[in-house]
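Encode chain A's predicted structure.
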Amino acid sequence: MARNYYDILGIKLDASEKEIRQAFRRLARKHHPDVNPGDKAAEAAFKEINEAHEVLSNPENRKKYDRFGENWKHADQFTQSNGGHGGGNFVWTNEGDPSSRMGSPHLDDILGDFMGGRGFGRTATTSRRRVRLERAVEVTLEEAFAGTTRVVQMGNGLQGGGRRLEVKIPAGVDNGSRIRVRSEGTSSGEDLYLVVSVLPHPRFERRGNDLYTKMNVPLVDAVLGGEVEVSTLTDKVLLKIPPETQNGRSFRLTGKGIPRLDSPQTRGSIFVAAQISIPSNLSEREKELFQELRSLSDNKE
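Encoded structure for chain A:
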């Protein structure tokens, strides 16, 4: 399945034309073949970036893409076959692939609608399907770690009104995770999915279920050893620094990362990179000690 154009440009679903243009220029400079001669991966990325920009920078094509995903080119045909039904701010997706972030109607569904349900041997009854809708939702890293809830309005797609439902977002969700909003007892014919986007965090970078961060280590602790306090998403731990720790050395805090979506009891790790802090505003005595240290180092050579 093709990658989502918004993900390719690294922008949000509600990005402005200016943000789309800025993202395209930044990525195009980075992956341009002239900058990366002979790099096939960069060349492929550059083509993806161009394709995404061409669609999302065109307001009309962007509307079609937001509704129909990678089959946006068939939007007019699909709209006609469904009697011109719209979907508000939702994204229409197919019934087949629950793992797709932005799915779209299968080609056989479109042809089946044109042929009154006779396409590919299906009857008019079997060609009817529930409407699958998607709505973007943002969560913080802390919410992705512990789980959270969101209140959504059902019935905005094909019918007015509807009811409000509280939806549980489980621990471990990541960018692109999809949560089904179950609405048993309603006859709206809509299946609503929340598509999760995890907001950036000021201290942690997430990679799968692992988190990466940096910590300042005083020079004296890096040389002689010591302990440094590290904040996780839930508590603070004392990390033992061995003597002669080098700048950039990584330490692993097992079980302090993000829970696995399919096994919340299992968590990833936090990887902490040491950043050695050079002291400033030294006293005269401290400077003398560093001079002595320099002399000792020179004598070793």
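Residues 257 and 286 are 40 Å apart (CA to CA).
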